[in-house]
Amino acid sequence: MNLSNHKINAIKTILLLLLVFSSPAFAHASAASLKGGFLSGFFHPISGLDHVIAMVAVGLWGAFLGKPAIWILPVVFPLVMAFGGALGVVGIPIPYIETGIALSGVILGLAVMFAVRPPIWIAAIIVGAFAIFHGYAHGAELPNATNPLVFSIGFVISTGLLHLAGIAIGELKRLNWGEWIVRGGGAIITVIGFGFLTHMISA
């Protein structure tokens, strides 16, 4: 498969997401690159409710499961998301991307709603599998970004903040009736996910 230099550079960028936080290039990014790169990347995950509910659900489930899941799941998601992003950059066809994103909200929401407590490796596999779909959607936008580097930083930071929001809500389980509040959040996520899923099926 022949790849353009732009795509090759974009793949390198997304696979090195964990390293770019200390990059001086970000500190000296121009206003134009922030507008067309960082801000575009930052708002990409939070501009779609289907992305938001899944990423919040990861944090919710991790907090609900407790240690070590509370930090393993939010780390697994962006790592595997980077791999999915690379697939999106290359343009390797993966069917039913939008369906997979909608299903992630349904399945992860149900896991929180019903207080599902699988072994940590199974939870990580489930989260990682759905991360591929979300990463692919981000990666497909990466070659069109003004600055792929800061675009990548943007959507990784945004994803992390959504995970942290889910963890913060999940910590309510420590309060009286807190567990039911958290499980209710899972129910809301499930309903929203079903809404996206049924809309796609009927479309």
Indicate the structural class: mainly alpha
Radius of gyration using CA atoms only: 17 Å
Q: Name the overall outline.
A: globular
Count all strands and give the number: 0
Main sheet specs: none
Give me the number of helical elements. 9
Tell me the β content: under 5%
What's the helix-strand series? HHHHHHHHH
Helix content: over 70%
Mean pLDDT: 81
Low-confidence regions: 15-35
Distance between the termini: 33 Å
What does it look like?
The protein starts with a helix and ends with a helix. Helices cover 77% and strands 0% of the residues. Helix 3 packs parallel to helix 8, helix 4 packs antiparallel against helix 5 and helix 6 runs antiparallel to helix 7. The chain has a domain of 140 residues. The protein has nine helices and no strands. By secondary structure, the protein is an all-alpha fold.
Give a brief outline of the structure:
With 203 residues, this protein is mainly α. The protein has nine helices and no strands.
Question: Descriptors for this entry?
Answer:
9 helices, mainly alpha
Outline the secondary-structure elements.
Elements: H1 5-15, H2 24-27, H3 31-46, H4 49-65, H5 69-90, H6 97-113, H7 120-141, H8 148-170, H9 178-202
Helix pairs in contact: 1-5, 3-8, 4-5, 4-6, 4-8, 4-9, 5-7, 6-7, 6-9
